[in-house]
Each structure stands twice: as C-alpha cells, then as structure tokens.
Amino acid sequence: MKKSKLVIVSLLFVVASSFMLLDVQSHTPSNVTLSYDYGTQTLEVTVSHSVSDPNTHYIEQIQIWKNDVSHTIKTYTSQSSASQHVDSFNIDAAHGRCSKSYCNM
Question: Which residue has the higher pLDDT, 97 or 29?
Fold first, then answer.
C-alpha cells in the first residue's frame, strides 16, 4: 500500500513539474502604423505582431487618444491574423490635431 502511494505521489509530482516548465512567453508588437482617411474620418491601426496562434496570443487592447483625452478603448479576444492585428475607428479630426494610439498585449 505504501509503495503504491509513493508511486502515485511521484507521478503527480512529475506531472505538476512538467506544467511548471512550459515555456510561456509573450512579446511586444514590432510596429504600430496609423493611417487616417480625412474623407471617411477613419483611423486605421495596424499592429505588427507575429504569433503562432492568434486565438491564444493576441493584442488585448487598443486605446486611441485625441487631443490628450482618451477617445476610444477597444478590447479584443483574438488577433485578426497570425502576422498582424488591424482595426478601424471613426474619429473626426482636423489637420494639425494630435492623436495617439496605444496597444496592450
């Protein structure tokens, strides 16, 4: 009886240890490109972020600032492709105004 308990405990230890050794890494996006169309008042945000599975490793949030005020915060549960994430935002803007965009993994 003691020997079987020892074997079970040892197996549980090995299984638990293997889960702790999994290589879980995240990395930052390599580039963020903003493109604005004055005709349609649309800001397109392209985040270059290469991943193996866009359903489990993705850009979590994009935040758009207009004139130093948070304008839009959008949260995601997946990435649009394995190489990048692209989204468009309707923002009225005039020439010379400042916009900022942040992305969060």
Answer: 29
Global pTM reads 0.66
Annotated domain spans of the chain: 29-104
Q: 20-58 as b/e, with b when 16 or more CB fall inside 10 Å?
A: eeeeeeeeebeebeeeeeeeeeebebbbebebeebeebb
Q: Which of 49, 99, 100, 103 is nearest to 74 (CA)?
A: 103
Q: Does domain 29-104 have CATH number 2.20.28?
A: no
Q: CA-CA distance, 58 to 61, in Å (whole number)?
A: 9
pLDDT digits (tens, 9 = 90+) for 4-62: 544 454 444 444 444 444 445 667 777 889 898 989 999 999 999 889 898 998 888 99
CA 45 – CA 42 distance, rounded (Å): 10
Task: Return the number of other C-beta atoms located less than 10 Å from residue 3's C-beta.
Answer: 7
